[in-house]
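Contributing new records

If you add data, match the layout below exactly. Sequence lines come first and carry their own label; structure lines follow with theirs. Keep one chain per record. Anything else will be rejected by the validation script.
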Amino acid sequence: MIIKIIQMTMMKKYCLLCLLSVLCLSMTCDEDSFCDMTGVAVTVIDNSGETFREVDDGQCPKEAMILQIEPEWDATGYNSGKLTSPIVGLRIITLNDFDDSHKAGSDVSEYFKTYPRELCPNENTVYDSLENGTPIDSWQTGYSCFKALLKVPAPGDYAFRIDMKLKDSETLTCTTQSIHLY
């Protein structure tokens, strides 16, 4: 019963996060237009409290870290659009030694899971397609990809680089701030 209550609390947090992302994003593409992505942004989220929060003090419980990943656009408009160059890959690279088998510069994407799957079905289709090897050819603006850290590393300072590979061979990257996971 307690687990069910915790799950419902977490679902409410992420629904709120999805809603805030939609309301705060002002750069969008027209529904039937083609959109060029100019970059990718990442925010580190602390999910340890009653409500989630953006990590702004450089510290986060290692069991509660989530990466919020969003593309950046060069067009304005409404809702969604087809991407000029589809997304064919999303990798999370550790900039510090993560564990014995994943030294600095290693791909640690396997330790992150798209989350929450059941809350935003439109998003899930997008992210599941990448995990299944199908390129993402459109993106509803205002949506974010949330990646929850599943493997808890030893306490310490960590930073990650997000690599979003496009079909035209361009790779958009961004780096998190250094986070002290405790």
